[in-house]
Specification:
Elements lengths: L1 H83 L1 H12 L16
Helix pairs in contact: 1-2
Length: 113
Amino acid sequence: MAKQKITGVKLTRLEARTRVIQRASHFGFLVFCLAIGFVVVATAIPQRRELDKLELKLKASKAREQAVLADREYHFIEHRALREDPTFLEIHARDRLDYFREGERVLRFKREP
């Protein structure tokens, strides 16, 4: 009977060592996964900053494009009015050349820059 008890003790110790080794390997795997996760996040941060910069440049470019398109539309309408509307042409020419009719009162407003 003493032999079985010794074998049982050795088996219990072996099982305890196996559980310790398994827990250590699980902990090591967890640490490895966390390290990989931190590496992925750390490499993504500069790319995110670059993406933010590019999005800001895109917004600025779109704003400039909208301003240019609005200015183009204004000039297109003004050109068409000068070509087709004699009243607008007369008003524009008189304003540019500082002509006015007798008895007419002209008010000029200064634009602020």
